[in-house]
Every structure is written in C-alpha cells, then in structure tokens.
Design goal:
Elements lengths: L2 H11 L7 E4 L2 E4 L12 E4 L11 E4 L3 E4 L18 E3 L4 E3 L3 H4 L2 E2 L4 E3 L4 E5 L5 H7 L3 H9 L12 H5 L8 H39 L20 E4 H4 E5 L11 E8 L11 E3 L1 H5 L4 E3 L4 E4 L8 E3 L4 E3 L3 E6 L5 H10 L1 H8 L9 H5 L2 E4 L2 H40 L8
Parallel strand pairs: 13-18
Antiparallel strand pairs: 1-2, 3-10, 4-5, 6-9, 7-8, 7-10, 11-20, 12-19, 13-14, 15-18, 16-17, 16-19
Length: 419
Amino acid sequence: MTDLIKERIDQIRSGKVPSGYVKTRAGIMPVDWKHDVQAKHVFQSYTNKDHHGNYEILAATQENGIVPRNQLDKEIKCSDEGIDGYKIVSRGDFIISLRSFQGGIEYSEYDGLVSPAYTVLKPIHEISDGYYKYYFKSNDFISRLNGAVYGIRDGKQIGYEDFGDLYIHFPSLAEQRRITDILTYCDKIIALYQQQMDELKKEKSYFQKNMFLQQGETNPRIRFPGFTSPWEHRKLGEMSESYSGGTPTAGIKEYYNGEIPFIRSAEINNDTTELFLSEEGLQNSSARLVSVGDILYALYGATSGEVGRARLKGAINQAILAIKPYAEHDTEFLAQWLRKSKHNIIGTYLQGGQGNLSGTIVKELLVEFPSLQEQQQIGNFFASLDNLITLHQRKLDEARRERKALMQLLLTGIVRVKT
C-alpha cells in the first residue's frame, strides 16, 4: 500500500474528505464517478412467470449466490400451487432474497426459476455484473441496506422500494470491469487454496479409513514398511489415565481473572482462552490442570466428540475429558483414532446427535492398535498432514481477509485502478 493511499484512508477515518474525492449519500467516492445514482436508476424489478415449469429451480445462498436447488444439502418442498407462481431468472440477474439483510443481494450465474418470495433485479444500464456482484456483498452496502428498513428482523424481506432508494457507487464501465478483473483474480487464488485444502482433507480421510479399519472390515490395512505384527484390542481406559474438570462458582470474582488459562470445550485447539482462573479458584473447585500435548476430548453439546491437543498449560471444566496415554501408547495415534471414530461414537451413544458423552463411555471405547513404534509412525504421519492442512487454512483465511479489504478500497474508489 502506497503512502498516498494510507494518507487517504487516514483522512477518511478522521472524517475528512481527501483531495479528488467528494462526500455523497452513498459515501465518499472519486469526483469523476457519478454521485447521485440510486439503485432504481440502474436496476429494475422484473417479474416473468411465463415458463410452464420448463426451467430448473434455483435457490439463494449467501456463500455461492443463486444456485440450482438440487445442489443444496437440504430438501425444499414447493407450495401447494407448485411452481406456477415462480419467477424466471436469467444469468446476470440479481435477487433480493429473504436473507438479503444478512448477506446482501445475490447474483445468478444460471437461467432458471426462483420462489415468488424473491425480487428479481435486471440491469437497465450497461454495467459490469461482477462489480455489483462484489459491491452488493460489501459490508458498507449491507449496513446501508439494513438501515434502509426500519425495525428489520429475521424473516422480513427487503422490498424493491427499500433497495431502489439507496444511493450507490457508479464508476465508469471501464473501471467497473477492471475492478471486476482484480477481484475475480483474488477469487481464483482463494479457490486454488480451497482446492488444495480439500485435496489434503480427502487424502487424510483416505488414510484414516485404511489405516484405522473398523473391526470386521475385510479391506487390507495400509501398513508402513517393516511392520507386520497383528494389531491388539484394548479399552481406552486400560491404555490411559483420564479425568474431567469443573467450574469455579461464577459469582465469586476472586476465583477469576488470574493467570491460569481456563479451557472450555470450544477452545480445545486454541492457543489462548477467554477466561482465566486464579489459584484460589483452582483450589476451590473441581477444575483440573492439563499439560501441553494432552488429549482434550469434548463431552457436551454441539462439540461432543471433538478432539484437541492442549496447546497451553491450563485448567479444564467438566465438559472436557483429559486423556494421558501410558508410556507404551502414542498420544498422537490415540488422538487421531478418536478423531477418525467421532461419527461412529456419536452415532452409537448419542441419539440423533443430541445429549452428552461421559468419561465412562470414553474409557469403555475399544481401541485397535499396533506396536508403539508403528503407532508413532502413524501419529507422525497424520500430524504432518494436519500441519499442512493448518498451513493451507491460514493461507486461505489470509487470502479472504485481503480480498475483503481490497473490495472495500476498490469498490468505493479509495484505491483507483488504471483502465
């Protein structure tokens, strides 16, 4: 980022208008952009139901815009009237959906039909579809869209009038296209990182399935070279020491804000914690200490079955089971076995995925394991895969943050592009 752009951003943050810019009802923008353009000057509400059902049914998603309904995980049933009242949508149209107040206006890459509850928007001027696809997803626009409707709440749809009265940025067509090119390139980088992540996760899943075969499966187990001895079976409670913790009384302030990290079930893979205990809080409660590297197993609620390795020395509450394998068993091997077995454990012990696990249940789990040397090989192998996945996740997260920041700067003209 150049010094000029930094200075420009600092001026805007301090409430000043930089040279070459003007303050409008859409926000600050370059003086050579159109300043008084309302959304209704660029997009019209469009309804066409003359389709006789000869189109694919589409649905709105916040992640991927308008997509074929059959791509969604959940089944959506049509009303009693069928699809006669559905509206035709063409590639390049925008949609005001029921959740536009949460995630902006959606863009359609498809021809098809959408629910009559949606508002179809068609451009009435030549525009770059991509520019407004990104613009309608910017935080600034979504905030102003929400502010346009008094008392908006979940389930209330934004109407065309609300949308149409909003003032929007309108750069030249050439600059719209150049901005689209830049942000599209950012999306390609993000897609590449995502593809690499998906491939690594697929590879890990393959090796999990074929190294940790369930009892009774007939496929040959993947083994590391040099290991041929059969695997043994033993209960997890016979392979490790385990215990859960507790929570100091919430109303006693002396028990909190100390120097002991208080790890809760959503934090079992975190480098830090939201809460800290005092030594007095630890001593006057059932909270128990864990060491770096211990297996942390979530027992309660939505996190049931999640597995972590403690990244800091701290205390745990009653929703976590700490597992410390004995010397003849490898910690990473057991952690990976528990991760691989999560869905089987949840399906066996929690009806419909609801409820809690317990230390007793976990200790009774039957683990199949090889020699310590082979456990270590397997543990190291999966730890390396996990490190690669974490690295790619960080790259993906950083690319998304950079794209988000760039969107704000480009779409509002704070950063100009050559056309």
